Amino acid sequence: MDGKFAQPINGAYCASKFAVEALSDALRLELHSNNIQVTVIEPGPMNTNFFKTLDNNSNALSSDTNSCYARFYESDASNRKKQKFAESKKAAKTISDIIMKSRLNARYQVAVPFSYNMITHFPDSLKEYILKNR
């Protein structure tokens, strides 16, 4: 979902996801006449080692209380503790079912919490208000 709206301290990560969205959209248009389908799988938070690895590799940086980003790090850590994670095996089965379809949609959301899905449809000003005040 990070390819749908940017979040504080995750700019580079979100940019990479925005790029996947754009590249996939362009490829879908370019390859259509060759009967090649392109889809985007938009997974929600998964129960993997991603956040453990993130914590291990950025703990020194994110625990610096003198950093101008300290409040963002604190907010991000707090929100992650409340976050519900989908089981990766269940998500993999859903993804497998999607890619076996004969006709693919442009996008599929897999295990995306309702609140994440909802915020993607908000006007930019409302998204930013929510993200600034979380």
TrEMBL record:
Keywords: Oxidoreductase. It comes from the Bacteria. InterPro entries: NAD(P)-bd_dom_sf, SDR_fam. Belongs to the short-chain dehydrogenases/reductases (SDR) family. This is SDR family NAD(P)-dependent oxidoreductase.
